[in-house]
Amino acid sequence: MHTGGAYGALVSHDTHPCTPEAIVPATSPGSGPRPPVPPPPPVSAGSDAPAPTDVGPHLRPGLDDRERELAPAIVTAWRISAALGWLLPGLVLTVLGFVLTDGWGWLVLAAVAALVVFSVVFYPGLRYRRWRWQLTELAIELRFGVLVRTQETVPYFRIQQIDITAGPVDRLLGLASLQVTSASASGSATLPGIAADHAPEVRAELLARAAAAVGEHPGDLRDAV
Amino acid sequence: MPSEPGLGRLPPPPPPPRPGGTTTSPSDRAPGATTPPGPEDFSQPRRLHPASVLLGVPLAQAVQAVIFPVVATLAAPPLFTIIALVGFALLGLIVRTVDWRLRTFSFDGEVLRVDDGILSRNHRSLDVSRIQQVEIQRGAVQRIFGLAAIRVETAGSASEPEVDLRVLPEADAVALRAAVRVSQGRLTGRDIGGSAAQGESTAPDEAGVEVLRVPLGHVIIAALTGARLLVLPAVLAGALQFIGNQVGPFVDRYVEQYLDRLIELGIAGEAPSFSGPDWRLVALGVGGALALTMVAAVVVGVLRDGNFRIRRVDEDLHISRGLLSTRDSVVPLRRVQLVEIRRNWARRALGYTTVRIRSAGGSAGGEGRVTVPLLPNTEVDRLLGHLLPNVDGVPALHAHPPAALRRALFRWLRPAALLLVAAYLLPEVLGVLDTEPVRTVQPYLLLLLPTNAVLAVVEYRQLAHGATPLVVAARSGALSISTVIAPVVKVQALTSRRSLFQRRLGLTTLHAHVAGPGAVVTVLDAGRADAADLHERLAEHAASPIPVVPETGADATDAASQTSGPPAGHT
Questions:
Q1: Which of A97, A151, B208, B228 supports an S-S bond with A105, CB 3.0-4.6 Å?
Q2: In total, how many domains does chain A have?
């Protein structure tokens, strides 16, 4: 039967001969922006699905399946956005505290200040330490969250669209975020901070894996919806 | 890759490996399945029926077109209002006519094309393989003239249907739908070719196997136990108040005049004075309003859901409903994304349930267009077997660990406690709130604590989930209990969440996302190991899907036996 068999073949190809070190210069995870990777061999991504036999280990560009961190610059981006985000609510709360209550205004101000310090100074670091992403055999997996730990899995086969976006702060810091969308509106995964020059490579890799995963399946099974 | 399984059936031409999203070339067409020429040939662009100038206007737009001039000229004399109305109507008529002339559609067997727009032109092409659901809708007026509207939905997340052709001659609508079905069948390698299509176009309501018919009595019970019973009083009250405001002054004036004349004539004494409410009258009023509401609910429910039928034609579900204006949807079985079984307390007490069938169509939410109004509990498993082939009934559900009870209590008591704290503390801090109403409400808020605690226990007892190689199911809810079942093949992505509190208790909430707005199976507060295991298994299935709807019989059993266990009770 095609599904099981062909898939098994892919897995064995993927895990054994394609050792990451052979292709990507080894970098310890999270040791700053990734050095430029040698240009990957031409990948037929997206439009035409290569036959499963063509998807040999040697034609795949290398992004191994180890756990990765975000680019450290994202911490600065989070700090800036937290500070901007707290500006207006903090001001309104403080003013309200002084106007509406008699004598409790300083308490409100202290509480707001504590919250701002926590969310600007401490929280981004905690958040960064919790962030991991990984390209496994079957799916892109994200693990993140300080208070609420979240694990998101989007299988390559279900990928419908990949967007790279970069806001003004992101561009200043050389960051980009990569959104992987499935056919479900709620089931999309966003990688918030990867190095901007690294993003196209990740996208190409994801597209290649998506195309290969679709190529595994016969006929109408290819339609993921 | 192993060869296509060639079985006893007519071997369809194996679909060549084709990139997703692009169209097949005409040479792929199966021989003998060409669309018959004549009135059913949609390959040339054609316009809608001329009546669409008037009948194609959505109700909301028509209401707006009347209300806007009326409101805008409220202060002006009535003549002005009439002129404005006529002017608006004329302008609308011209725009609609131009719009009708410029709106064309065509279907060449692979792509449905719609061109429309007056100032900015809009060309849409819809590949037949992307179509999720086709619905034919006949309004009351449309039925008189033998017209119908056809809506085509894809797996977008927009709130509107992708293509909405209002209105066509009914025969054309049926033929177009048949043509779409034939093309879809050809794409998936099934043979529902010429004969079936022609049979359908001549006798559209007789083909196929009847899966379900909801008797009138059940529709009435559904109307009386549904949520609409709660909404209708508000609507009725609003309408009555509106009428009262318009008519009231005149009535008052006439009653006054009449009383004055009676007093003048010496028949009556002083005008009756108002002395407190007459409780009998109040009871009568409330009783009357209740009865009126129930009658209105039944009438609306019967008109909407009367004659509800589900038929299965080949691999498609045909769902039709409605007495005055009818709706007739076609959902391919392989597009069923989610089945939700929902029981509110009234229906649970009577032993009934409602079933909602979701495809990935964008506008499937809201009104719940494919909702079985009422079904006896005993029928649920049989219906599920038809909706999700090879699945016989709700899978065995496992209760969640006792720690989930603590979380349920926390979840229900937290808002109540916050409200209490706010009610007792805020008046101390903010002088503004220290008023009589707040003081009187305070003791009643204490009642929330026991009520919510009971609801939390009820919710915990309902929490459960289960998974077979073919479907994943989860149950939750306290007042209205819903069981959501999705085919494992349709799971697109997975999310597991563990909050601080959940981590202490060893619990995880798992979301399995399927296509369609808000379509998700939520396993609330499962045990951590259970949830992790389910997450992994579902992710694996999502990465290498196995069809729930078999292409051929042997293929399905083959596929099912590849998974960890055989599908329960099916050969």
A1: A97
A2: 2
- Residue B66's pLDDT band (cuts 50, 70, 90): confident
Taking CB atoms and an 8 Å cutoff, what residues of chain B touch A3?
Answer: 544-546, 559, 562
Q: Which residues of B touch A219 (CB under 8 A)?
A: 14-15, 188-189, 551
> Given strand B326-332, what is the order of strands in its sheet?
B163-169, B147-154, B131-138, B326-332, B316-321, B309-313, B209-213
B96 or B264, greater pLDDT? B96
Judge if A145 and A218 occupy the same domain.
Answer: yes
Q: Report the gap between the CA of A147 and the closest CA in chain B (Å).
A: 5
The answer to whether B544 touches A7, Cβ cutoff 8 Å, is: yes
Residue A17 contacts residue A57 (beta carbons within 8 Å)? yes
- CB within 8 Å of chain B, chain A residues 129-148: 138-139, 145, 147-148
Residues A16 and A102 in one domain: no
- Higher-confidence residue of B265 and B158: namely B265
Whether the predicted model's global pTM rises above the 0.80 cut: no
- Cα(B401)–Cα(B408) distance, integer angstroms: 12
Alpha-carbon gap, residue B453 to A155, rounded angstroms: 40
Considering the domain architecture, whether residues A199 and A94 belong to the same structural domain is answered as no
Buried b (16+ CB within 10 A) or exposed e, B487-500: bbbbbbbbbbbbbe
Between CA A141 and CA A138 the distance in angstroms is 9
What gap in Å lies between CA B229 and CA B266, rounded to an integer? 48
Instruction: Round to whole Å and give the CA distance between B262 and B270.
Output: 10
Same domain, A37 and A64: yes
Q: Give the separation between CA B134 and CA B359, rounded to whole angstroms.
A: 11
Span A121-163, pLDDT tens digits: 999 999 999 999 999 989 999 999 999 999 999 999 999 889 9
Q: Are residues A146 and A61 in the same domain?
A: yes
Number of H-type helices and E-type strands within chain B = 17, 21
pLDDT for residue A7 is more than 70 = no
CB contacts < 8 A, A to B, total: 153
Q: Residue B565 corresponds to which tokens in the numbers above?
A: 């266990």
CB contacts, 8 Å: A154 with chain B? 492-493
**Exposure of B345 in the CB half-sphere (CA atoms within 13 A):** 5
Where on the phi/psi map is residue B156: left (φ > 0), alpha (ψ -120 to 50), or beta? beta
The strand ranges marked E within A22-170 are: 132-135, 139-144, 149-155, 161-165
> Which residue's structure tokens are 């737009």?
B61
Q: Are residues A103 and A8 in the same domain?
A: no
- Sheet of strand A161-165: strand arrangement: A161-165, A175-181, A189-195
Domain boundaries, chain B: 33-213, 225-271+287-305, 336-400+463-562, 403-460
Chain A residues touching residue B510 (CB < 8 angstroms): none
A88 touches chain B (CB under 8 A): no
CA distances from B54 to B61, B103, B170, B304, B345 (A): 12, 14, 16, 23, 44
Name the minimum distance, in Å, from the CA of A191 to any CA of chain B: 14
- Alpha-carbon distance of B550 to B166, in angstroms, equals 35
For residues A90 and A149, membership in a common domain is answered with: no
Do A16 and A116 share a domain, yes or no?
A: no
Give the residue from A112, A127, A142 where a domain finishes. Answer: A127
